[in-house]
Amino acid sequence: MLRGCRPVSGLSLIVSVIVIIAIWQRLCAYPEDAGGSPNRGGLSEPRRRHRIETRERSLADCVPTCWWQQTSLLSHFTRSTICSRLTPGGRVSISGRMLIQTQGGTRAEQQLDTDDVLLAAYREHFGIVLSRVPDDPAA
After folding, report:
1. pLDDT for 72-115, tens place per residue?
2. CB 3.0 to 4.6 Å from 90: which of 29, 32, 102, 133, for a disulfide?
3. Buried b (16+ CB within 10 A) or exposed e, 80-93
């Protein structure tokens, strides 16, 4: 095994792929962001903040990044459990035992105290039916 890497469960892979797809959908949904945005430092010329390629990608193009996100001890995804997806008006996420819903710029957080409530949230918001609560990577 590579140093700094650890085995990945099937659920971790699914969650990582969901997050990468959500990020990719965001990039594809807002291509106008590629042109840069006004520099708020008082200069009148726009400053490019991001470079976005518009060429089509396959899921296989995400494999190296996905592998790093799943195995690196520096990755956020190996330090906590996160599941997130875009909704028509915002985003819904479960981070650990916290349900986070953003709608029209308003963020609402709800602590999911019991295993049954947490499993129901995965099922309702993501269509993921789990037999048990995912292991906590931080434990």
Report:
1. 888 878 888 889 999 999 999 999 899 999 998 899 999 999 99
2. 102
3. ebbbbbeeeeeebb
